[in-house]
Amino acid sequence: MNLVQPYCFGEVCFKHSYLLLLIPIVIAILIFLIKRDFIKFKNKKEQEDYDKEKYGKRKIMMTTRSIIYTLLILALAVPFMVEEKLVPGNLSLTILVDNSTSFSIFDYGVVQGLYNELKDKIPVELRYIGRGEDSAIGDGILQNIQGDDNILVVSDGYSNRGKLLGDMISFASGLNSTINSIHMDPVTSDVGVMIEGPTQTIIDVVEAFNVEVNNVGKDVSYHITVTVDDETVVDEESRGTNSFTIRKGFPEGYHKITARLDNVGSDDHFAVNNEFHKSIKVIQRPLILFVSEKSSPIESSLNNIYNVDKVNTLPDKLDKYAAVVINDVTAQRLSSKVDVLNDYVSNGNGLFVIGGEGSYDRDDSLRSLDSNVNVYQSLLPVKIGSGEEGEKSDVNIMVVIDASQGTANHLDVEKALAISVLESLALENNVGVISFYSEGASRKIGLISPILPLRMHINETKSKIKRLTFGGQSYFDYGILSANTLLKGVSGSKNIIFISDGSTTYEKLKADTRNAVMAVADRGVKVYVVGVGSFVDNKGGVYNGGSKRNDEFLSQLALFGNGIYFPADVSNKLKILFGKQDEKKDEQEFFNRLVILESTHFITFNVSMDAVVSGYNLVVPKASSRLLVTTNKNIPMLTVWRFGLGRVASLATDDGSKWAGELLSKENSRLITKTINWVIGDMSRNKEFDVSIKDTSLGKDADINVVSAELPEAEGLSFFKRDVNLYSAFTTPEKTGFDEILGATFAVNYNDEYKNLGMNREFLELINASGGSVFEPSNSEEIISKIKRVSKRVKLQSTNYGWILILVALGVFLIEIFLRRLKEKNQII
Questions:
Q1: CA within 20 to 30 Å of 585's CA: 1, 225, 432, 798, which one?
Q2: How many CB atoms neighbour CB 323 within 10 A?
Q3: Higher model confidence: residue 524 or residue 40?
């Protein structure tokens, strides 16, 4: 019992519960007093008569006094009961209308008509949020909620500044405010263009740039022209949503890409988003150090892209190099300079270690107790040797299915994907399956199967998955933590396969999930993530026919969980990781086909592999590393991680001289060059003077960063020192196109207000998940019904019953007096 806080016995509670301890104390004192004789007679007979007479009276008094004092103490403890009472709430409605420019493609007359229908039936107030190119929808909600009220937000749900919509909807829910919305279709159409691609590259390296044409409403016709430094590379007629890919290499300097839509159909609502600009900074070939004791077929490829210094041993100083590539060199040969290498990487530089016949597991010096060798091993993202066979004998997997309302949009796809995942796993693996969802404010876990050998329940589990129903909020963290709880009691490798679309705009929920994944990863559990949804862009928020997938968020979960993110069909890749050993011997025993496991990483993004290797080094990825490429037999090939401020990559096959010749083909060699580019990171960091300016848009500042030994000067700019030899300034562009500052070119594009047009489905789903509703504009009666229903608030009332106990105590006391007087009277008579 908590004696400080109110304590309840059933429905009765006591405000000062600590006073209840006085009851046994008072009763004990009364018993002591009653048994105590305060009057003594010299005559024994008189004493016996007195005791006999007084004992009967004392029993009665002890009983009545105990009752009286108990009642008084109970009254002092303030007894009360809490009762729920349904009371009428605020039946009014506040309509918040998006007044920003992007919402003008919708019919404001619908809003006015809805307002006219509602105002005669319930109190309605019409207010406007957002203005012009400022879509601060979250701020508008925050400024208008009062608590215990009803809000109808009429907006496309796209916010370009201010508070996050997810946070504001959650905040409103905490104030017992209900946020609703209406679904609207645009009455006018629009077509806009954007360019996506790298902002920095190396001389003559071919890069891919995607020109995306986005169409809202009816298909709009247009003529698209794409120019690269005034050279036309796309010139054609088209209509509707489309995509164009440009592959091109550049000489050193700044280059410009412009995409323009001309002869646009009359249905196009905004003309401002029909032109887009992109700048590319092309730098000189970085200087890299190639450490190899033999001639290598990879040298010619490196010399075509980088400036390469080839040496047999590490030099004393590495500062001038953007990256160090070590090719099949034993740890013993590097041990005298390993501290130099360790400092070099820790300070933000890159290291790429390539295997071979004298490297990794074939390097006996790595098994020595030499402290320098141990330092070298600590740099690598892999451990030496193979743990494959030992781990396969006791593999534990929890399959976690997101059964929330968001994934219901592609329910059949997720069920089929979950079944495909099960069929990819070896039958001897220990596999459990759960689903997670919510009912109101309660989080629910559905145990489809406990952790048992898969052969014991695969058919039954597949049948249960087919019968799954979906609904409620996506509590991702609850699903992850529940899976971890079920894995705690097993021994062997522990893995979670998390199946979800990752859909939510609630940033706190995302943060909670990231923390949950990191917590289970710290306990040795790997989290593999399977993304549901058939259409997605690199921002993780594009919808097509109700299908969606948040790639950015899901890939973060895999990264924090030391696992891999699979954004598409994963049956073959999961079979590589967890499939039966015999099932992997369909191909020739001697050769191993390379497979990209994680396609969202910078190195493997847009890279296709068609290569086999005839030999490899046995390595095991460390816990915090990322395994990007493996073989069809689950042999780790390319593993990366961050070490201090630097980056390290490990390739567990050779340079193509004996085992991996197919890696040197034109397409496959991109894996090598992109790995080197990744370990280099910022290619301009070693320059004495450099200017970096990211492309921006109207309404946003351009961030200018200058590497310089002295404070830079430029007209109209005020620089401040950010770090050693690093200075920054900001400028606010006033027109679109290309601009130049201190010799650096950057692009300024149309305001972000015109990028995302149409209804934001994620916003509408967040409304539903928070307890609100999304109505059709014509359903005014349904809106009124919802407001009446949610406006009935449950009010908690506490009733104090102490006065009743005092009256009862007084009554007992009066009865006692009456009985004593009556007995005395009878004795007299």
A1: 432
A2: 28
A3: 524
Q: Collapsing DSSP states into helix, strand and coil, what is residue 685? A: coil
Helical axes 371-379 vs 338-346, angle rounded to 10°? 30
Q: Which CATH number fits domain 195-283: 3.40.120.10, 3.90.180.10, 1.10.645.10, 2.60.40.10?
A: 2.60.40.10
Give the three-class secondary structure for 815: helix
pLDDT tens figures, 184-233: 889 999 999 999 888 888 888 888 899 999 999 999 999 999 999 989 99
Q: How many C-beta atoms surround the C-beta of residue 756 within 10 A? A: 20
Lowest mean pLDDT segment, chosen from 577-586, 631-640, 682-691, 787-796: 577-586
Find how far residue 437's CA is from the centre of its chain. Answer: 17
Q: How high is the pLDDT of residue 587?
A: 41
> Would you state the pLDDT for residue 581?
47
Reported as a pLDDT band with limits 50, 70 and 90, residue 790 is confident
CA distance 650 to 619: 10
Dist. CA 427–CA 583, nearest whole Å: 11
Domain 287-379+585-682 part of CATH 3.40.50.880: yes
Q: Which SS3 state, helix, strand or coil, does residue 581 take?
A: helix
Q: Mention every residue, 6+ apart, whose C-beta is less than 8 A from residue 375.
A: 338, 339, 342
The SS3 call for residue 733 is coil
Lateral strand order in the sheet of 178-182: 124-132, 93-100, 150-154, 178-182, 774-775
Helices (H), 502-593: 507-521, 551-560, 571-578
Between 580 and 291, name the one with better pLDDT. 291
State the Cα–Cα distance between residues 191 and 379, nearest whole angstrom: 50
Please tell me the class of the 93-186+758-791 domain: alpha beta
- Euclidean distance between CA atoms 159 and 136, whole angstroms: 5
What's the confidence (pLDDT) of residue 491? Answer: 77
CA distance to 34, 541, 629, per residue, from 606 (Å): 94, 19, 14
Other Cβ atoms within 10 Å of 271 Cβ, number: 14
Q: Is the pLDDT of residue 84 over 70?
A: no
Distance CA 803, CA 75 (A): 7
Q: What integer pLDDT is reported at residue 190 of this predicted model? A: 94
From residue 301, how far is each of 153, 296, 298, 770, 774 by CA, in Å? 58, 10, 5, 55, 57
Give the chain's largest Cα–Cα span: 134
Check residues 710 and 62 and name the one with the higher pLDDT.
710
Structure-token pair, residue 102: 């992007």
- pLDDT averaged over the chain? 82
| Per-residue confidence (pLDDT) for residue 554, from 0 to 100 | 87
Answer yes or no: are the C-beta atoms of 599 and 577 closer than 8 Å. no
Is the fold of 93-186+758-791 the same as that of 195-283?
no
First to last CA, the chain: 54
Q: Where are the domains of the chain?
A: 7-83+800-828, 93-186+758-791, 195-283, 287-379+585-682, 388-584, 690-746
| pTM, 2 dp | 0.58
Confidence of residue 586 (pLDDT cuts 50, 70, 90): very low
C-alpha span between 130 and 103 (Å, rounded): 10
Phi/psi for 710 (5° steps) reads -125, 160
